[in-house]
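Dear colleagues,

As part of the handover before I leave the project, I'm documenting each prediction I ran so the next person doesn't have to rerun anything. This entry is a single chain, and its sequence is reproduced below.
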Amino acid sequence: MKTTLTSLALAASLIAAPAVAADKLLLKTPIAFSTALPGLGSPIPRVAEQLDLMSGGTLKMKVYEPGELVPPFEILDAVSTGKINSGYTTAGYWAGKIPAAPLFSAVPFGPEAGEYMAWIYYGNGLSLYQEMYDQAGYNIHVIPCAIIAPETSGWFANEIDSPADLEGLKMRFFGLGGKVMQKLGVATSLLPGGEIFPALEKGAIDATEFSMPAIDARLGFHKLVKFNYFPGWHQQATLFELIINKDVWAEVNETHKAIIENACKASMTDSFAEGEAIQHAVLIDNVENNGVTIMQWSQEMLDTYRSTWEAVAAEEAANDEFFAKVLADMNEFRDGYQLWKQNAFLPRK
């Protein structure tokens, strides 16, 4: 009888083993931004830590620095095909594959972070975000996982006093703002963060934008170009995504799904707060110790950027039906939000 009971217990353990294994998940997550970049790459290691803690060790994430496992611009395809099961990046990198993707990354002249999150979570933003990937044939599940406030508008070797001063410049520029700059005569290129400084140093580009002051400082742009322009009209907020292979996501248990989604939602708050907390010290250091001149765009330049953006938006909408759908929904939400914003918030000085 003892032998029989032992055999039955062994058989039961073998049957249960796959279920136990299925309740454990390791997300191997290459990222597009170095974890040394605050607010940009720093959120995802904290997400990894929280996944482990909240799951009691049954859900883990291994973070791979840019290029360590997959080059930044190849993360989407690698996740979709199952080469890797997850990745942390920004949708704006897929503009060449999916025209609407930049709308889920950064939009010229807004929305700002609070408005962006409102549209994503309580408007139609998140459902349209997933629909975009589904419609484009990518086998991924998308989760917003970080957001930062305005970026600097760019680093230039010389002052930009009029639109004519932009003509002929070679500049690293991201997303839909890059299309605006192209219309204004700028030759733009989209370089990963680690490649920008060498390109500036060698003269391959004349100017660049990348991110917030604290992030740009880590990359050393101030050593080569001294005019730093504000406001960041092209990126009043930038959204980052955790993408997970959809077949993998389908097998994830409901507890782990809730942990991942809520860890990312917490990361949205944390990344925004981190970014807001650390910029002023860098601005002071740039002026007092690095010889940087902080510049504000003239009203003429801002009006030029805005009118050019409106032309770009109309062209993109005419060329891509889904871009038009997303932009119309976002603008409808923003029209309503504007009533609240104008009445509730103090005007800027």
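The two ends are 85 Å apart (CA to CA). The mean pLDDT is 93.

All the best with the project,
I.
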